[in-house]
Write the structure tokens for this entry.
Amino acid sequence: MTSDDTLDQRGKVVARYARRDWRGRIARCLPSKAELSGAKRRRESTGSDRKVIYADLATAETAARELEKLGAPPLRAYLCNRSKRGHAHLTSMPWGGR
Ligand SMILES: [Zn+2]
């Protein structure tokens, strides 16, 4: 049983480590217009859509360890192929699942 309080704490951890967009909101991963229209092959499965963006693997790993302390399932950080500069996401799925 996960209390609302725990979920709130996890949300704060995500907010602390996530990358922000220019409006100061938590940045999320979205396919480019070219990918959506089918002009370009999608670089990531739809599993990455809307995922919170972390600036790099180390930041994502740090967030993962804190989330696990708050009772989250084991989390794995991975690099997303969508960004040229590279950014990271977290997944609770094993075996490379995204
Ligand atoms: Zn991404």
